[in-house]
Amino acid sequence: MKLDQYGNEISWIPKLNTRDDIPLYQALVQAIQDDINKGILMRGYKMPPQRVLANQLGLNHGTVTRAYKICEEKGLVKGIVGKGTFIAASPGLPISLLTDHKDTDLISLGMAIPLYECNPLIETHIKQVRDSMDYGLTMTYCPPEGHIKHRYVAANWLIKYKINVEAENILITSGTQNALAIILMTLFEKGDRIVVDEYTYTGLISLASYMSVILIPVLGDEQGMDIEDLKSTCKREQPKGIYLMADYHNPTTVTLSVERRKALAKVIEDNNLLLIEDATFSFSLEKKIKPVSAYIPEQSLFIMGTSKAISPAFRISYIAAPSSLVEKLSHGLNNIIWMASPYTSEIVSLLQSTGAYERIEEEKIRLLKERNKRFDEIMTGYDVLPAPTSCYRFLQLPSNYDDVELEYLALEKGVQILSANRFYVGSKPEKPTIRLAVSAPNTLEELEIALNIIKELLDNYRRRKSLYPVL
């Protein structure tokens, strides 16, 4: 361990390439990337503070700051407020979950694709409601929050999810990611804190990073977010909001019990937090459970999407908001997208009001049951939480496994999986874990092929001496 002239400990000093005609900040970025590839900088390693490294290398502080920022954008490092900068849990892994792999034989278990197997059924139902379309309504501009007719249908439809809300308190958005963007841009400011599960939705992670909103992880167990850790985190961090996925949490598949939902609602109420509840995968839960939002409606934003339940083609989601926030969110909608498409909103409303939506949901649940049963049969012996109708499964691996390396090895064998590092908020998770999307393959037979490849890979896994490449 070296000390600089000011007595600061230095555990890593990069070798900069100063011979080539490149700026110093780029040379530092390249040195960091090279040392990750060589295994000198390992996942979770705490980087020297920018000021200390600048002093040691004789560089301007701004040069090191710029290099660290570029490394963060490239996914090589991760800055955690109050703790420092760490080598990322999955350094250099491509951020996009939609593969652009040129091998047409690639089977995806990566992105939780919404069962394209059901598309012919959806097409049939669309054709059946097509003649009932109100073209006079759908071919014109509408208010930012959507036509009141579509919001009224949505309010009635949300009752099955145990959400009672007036039509005037619903805003229609262009998908759940758009809903989250509107909420964060409208109701949060740079530096605000949002409490999340230690594993959480990647779309929120990237969005919060883009908007400089700080995500604060809270420990959890097989029942969900830990109540005592949430209480202490609220006391320590003074967060403004909390993000929850109560049904088939992404990626862990945990579904909160009624008792845990009530306990969470109490802590949220006591700490005056704004709850953002994402119900993206609630459709696949056979027996619907009262959401956390229903216990504290005046402090909650309940988001229900249709992309996973029906089709991503429509890009329709709903925000159920308290009256105090509707106008502000409507202004946010107006500024960001003006309005969601009234044409696709009309189609979704017709599917909801005619019962077609429910029939599509039922068929997807039937197929998910079939796929998850097959998953359980093939992956016997591995540590997986029960999730009989989930779109994905969360598989915990032995401690000597490297889940990031496994993501690369699986891709080499023609299967895309996701290391759970992608979902982790913090420096480095304790256990190696992968998420496998059972809804992604085109057919049950394709799923079986992919799972057998992964099973063989896991059964015969030996950690490589050479590290996977940084992309």
What fraction strand?
5-15%
Please report the number of helical segments. Answer: 15
Sheet with most strands: 7 strands, mixed
What's the CATH architecture of the largest domain?
A: 3-Layer(aba) Sandwich
CATH superfamily of the largest domain: Type I PLP-dependent aspartate aminotransferase-like (Major domain)
Beginning-to-end CA distance, first to last residue: 30 Å
Which parts are unreliable, with pLDDT below 50 for 5 consecutive residues or more? 99-103, 465-471
List how many beta strands DSSP finds.
19
**Averaged pLDDT:** 88
Shape by Cα distribution: globular
Which class do the helix and strand fractions yield?
alpha/beta
Q: In which range does the helix fraction lie?
A: 25-40%
Give the helices and strands, then pairings.
Elements: E1 2-3, E2 9-10, H1 24-37, H2 50-57, H3 61-73, E3 77-80, E4 84-87, E5 107-108, H4 119-129, H5 135-138, H6 148-158, E6 170-173, H7 176-187, E7 193-197, H8 202-210, E8 214-218, E9 220-221, E10 224-225, H9 227-237, E11 241-244, H10 258-270, E12 274-278, E13 300-305, E14 317-320, H11 323-336, H12 342-354, H13 356-378, E15 383-384, E16 393-396, H14 403-412, E17 415-416, E18 418-419, E19 433-436, H15 444-459
Parallel strand pairs: 5-17, 7-8, 7-11, 11-12, 12-13
Antiparallel strand pairs: 1-2, 3-4, 6-14, 9-10, 13-14, 15-16, 16-19, 18-19
Helix pairs in contact: 1-3, 2-3, 6-12, 7-8, 7-11, 13-15
Family: In the C-terminal section; belongs to the class-I pyridoxal-phosphate-dependent aminotransferase family.
Protein name: Transcriptional regulator with HTH domain and aminotransferase domain
InterPro entries: Aminotransferase_I/II_large, HTH_trans_reg/aminotransferase, PyrdxlP-dep_Trfase, PyrdxlP-dep_Trfase_major, PyrdxlP-dep_Trfase_small, Tscrpt_reg_HTH_GntR, WH-like_DNA-bd_sf, WH_DNA-bd_sf
